[in-house]
Amino acid sequence: MILEMKNIVKHFDDCNVLHDISLSVDSGEVVSIIGRSGSGKSTLLRCATFLEKIDGGSISYKGETVAHTPEGGRAVYANKKDIARAKNYFGLVFQNFNLFPHYSVIKNVYDAPVNVQKTDRKAAEEEALEILDKMGLRDKADAYPCQLSGGQKQRVAIARALAMHPDILFFDEPTSALDPELTGEVLKIIRKLAQEKMTMVIVTHEMNFARAVSNRVIFMDGGYIVEEGDPEEVFGNPKQERTRQFLRNYSDD
Predict the structure, then answer these.
(1) Fewer beta carbons under 10 A from the terminal one: N or C of the chain?
(2) CA nearest neighbour of 49 among 193, 217, 197, 170
(3) What percent of the chain has pLDDT over 90?
(4) How many CB atoms lie within 10 A of CB 250?
């Protein structure tokens, strides 16, 4: 098991955002998280990747506990060294790309392996070119983000995440900032990664895509996991009324 989150609680001031959420992800698994805006999907990903601190529960990567909650207390995190090691296990692709505008495409991809993982620069550059080739962007290696379309920027963001050799990739609404044509090219890359058995957790509003690529689908509402299961069951025969209502509303849009 790569990721295990147990009984996660998160609140902002008096607002409870996540209620007793548990999530586990095995190697090679693709898990899609769906739900309306404000349901807690992105907050869950931000907690899994340490961008937000949990208030209760536990988080483990590859059997190593990096956050736990003593009985009656608040969550306690591991030391900086253990957290840094856990960060090497995952990559995160944001909705808005988050590329360095003053770096070329290839430097955006090789910068972290060189500076964080201390990879030899020449080897990192060669691998960056190979990954860009896989993304269909080798000819853009010397371009800058401002010269790219939104779809190309997102593919560079995926390349940058892959360059760190993560055990698991998190995607937070990877196509929400893109128009339909550009959405297709990004989803094609993610679909290819799924075929290659890349472990992924994808927060998405692309229902047909989630149904096609996922091993498991989670529906969240109001900070709770309402339904979880095989994509054909969740989409084709949901057990919970809230899931049925969400999917009805979504198909009406």
Answers:
(1) C
(2) 170
(3) 86
(4) 12
Distance of alpha carbon 202 from the chain centroid? 5
Strands lying side by side in the sheet with 64-68: 15-25, 3-12, 56-61, 64-68, 76-77
Give the C-alpha distances (Å, rounded to integers) separating 11 from 18, 53, 157: 7, 10, 29
Distance of CA 45 to the CA centre of its chain: 6
Give the domain ranges of the chain.
104-163
What CA–CA distance (Å, rounded) separates 32 from 205?
Answer: 10
Q: Output DSSP code: residue 213.
A: H
Token readout for 75 is: 């969550």
Query: In sequence order, which residues have a C-beta less than 8 Å from that of residue 178 and are 6 or more positions away?
Result: 150, 151, 154, 186
Strand-pair category, 76-77 with 168-172: unpaired
Q: b/e map of 101-113 (b: 16 or more CB within 10 Å)?
A: eeebbbbbbbbbb
The amino acid present at 21, given as its one-letter code, is I
CA distance 176 to 233: 25
The two structure tokens encoding residue 74: 């608040």
Among the listed residues 44, 4, 47, the one whose alpha carbon sits nearest the alpha carbon of residue 26: 4
- The Cβ of residue 157 has, within 10 Å, a number of other Cβ atoms equal to 26
pTM of the model: 0.94
For residue 227, pLDDT beyond 60: yes
Closest among 93, 167, 159 to 128, alpha carbons compared? 159
Give the model confidence (pLDDT) of 137-187 as tens digits: 999 999 999 999 999 999 999 999 999 999 999 999 998 888 888 898 899
Complete DSSP assignment for 59-95: EEETTEEEEE--TTS--EE--HHHHHHHHTTEEEE-T
How many Cα neighbours within 13 Å face the side chain of 149? Answer: 12
